[in-house]
Structures are given as structure tokens and as C-alpha cells.
């Protein structure tokens, strides 16, 4: 269970901070909700506390995990041989997991491809969104410097 003030990741929405835990009643049934302030969209989201695992909500990674991800981001292998439609499906599946490593791989691979040739509109939008999700989490890691955040550029 998360606490007020915890930094979390909500897949397909990015990073946020739990601002409150509220009890709401719908159809005569009371349920607790996390009230999350999302950093990318600046919107507030309410997530039932008992559904966070099913939705993939997780804590923000720590600085040690970030160093591992930066290494993979800078040194990992990219496969640009598959057709773009298949690559799009694979990348979308990675983003939907909400896992930072999966998202970092999508950003890394699409940035490398973008250097070689222009991305189509769908992949360009995917890169923009995946990059925003990645940076939104990196920005909430305790002890991170602005220079480390910018290493993903």
C-alpha cells in the first residue's frame, strides 16, 4: 500500500505523486482511492487502492536502478530489422508494461532510428510519449541531478 507523498508510476500516464487517499461511495459500495497528481499532464487521477497491482501502478525506481538503465540506454543493442508495424506493436506492448527499462529501450531504439532516417508519424508520436514518461519518472528519483536527467537526451 502506498502512502501520501509517495512517487509512483501509472502505466501509460507516467509519474505522479499520491496527494491523498480518499474514500468514495459508488452504487452503495465504499472504496478507497489514491488521488494522484500526474506530472506530465498536470491532471489528477483517482485509482482504487485495491486495483493498483492489476493496473501496474508501482513505485518510482531508485538511483541505483537508474544507473543500470542509463548503461543499457547507452550501450544496449537495437533491432531495426523488423517492419515498422510489427515494431510499433512490440514497442507499444513495452510501454504498456509501465516498466522503466522497457520504456527506456523504446526511447533508445526510436532515437537511434531517428538519427538514421525520419520516423513515420506514429513512431514519432510514440517516441515523444515514451520520452515524456521516462523523463517524468527520472525527475522524481530522489538524489538525481539535473545533469543525470539530461543524459537521456
Automatic annotation (TrEMBL):
Outline the extent of the CarD-like/TRCF RNAP-interacting domain: 1-111
Q: Which Gene3D superfamilies match?
A: 2.40.10.170, CarD-like, C-terminal domain
Q: Name one GO biological process term.
A: rRNA transcription
Report what the protein is called: Transcription factor YdeB
From what organism does this protein derive? Answer: Alkalihalobacillus alcalophilus ATCC 27647 = CGMCC 1.3604
Q: What is the lineage of its organism?
A: Bacteria, Bacillati, Bacillota, Bacilli, Bacillales
